[in-house]
Design a protein that fits this description.
By secondary structure, the protein is an alpha+beta fold. The protein has a single domain, classed as SMI1/KNR4-like (3-Layer(aba) Sandwich), CATH 3.40.1580. Helix content is 23%, strand content 29%. It is globular, with a radius of gyration of 14 Å.
Length: 133
């Protein structure tokens, strides 16, 4: 795994851990035909389709309607940042559920294994609410 700043984006590139994390995040069923590459600025997955086109999609909700093209060089140079290394910024109440991005009490810094569990849990809640309408 590699991480650091690339311009204004903080990138976490999963490299050899990508396939394992793809499954841990539940993307096998959510995004068939894509493969996980990493995270962009903590809020978005970076994914790639079978043709090599790259996209971002929110971690919550991981809804294919939110796919957006994303350009990233192969093997980008990343500027390390020890203040955030090994941690992921997480909105305690995700923005799609009404959480505020600028309130300190809505932001927590968590490890990757906790992030995978929270992403799966909140995406399940999103699907439950969406299908109950």
């Amino acid at each position: 795994m590699r991480e650091g700043w690339s311009g204004d984006d903080y990138l976490i590139l999963f490299d050899e851990d990508a396939a394992r994390l793809h499954a841990a995040y539940g993307l096998t069923s959510t995004l068939p035909g894509y493969r996980l590459l990493g995270l962009r600025s903590w809020d978005d997955f970076i994914i790639e389709d079978s043709r090599g086109a790259r996209f971002t999609i929110p971690t919550v909700p991981t809804d294919p309607s939110y796919l957006a093209p994303f350009e990233i060089a192969d093997g980008p140079t990343l500027e390390p940042d020890e203040k955030v290394h090994g941690r992921i910024k997480w909105y305690v109440t995700p923005l799609v559920f009404g959480g505020a991005p600028d309130l300190d009490d809505n932001v927590s810094w968590i490890p990757l294994d906790q992030h995978t569990k929270l992403v799966v849990w909140w995406n399940q809640k999103y699907l439950e609410l969406r299908t109950s309408r």
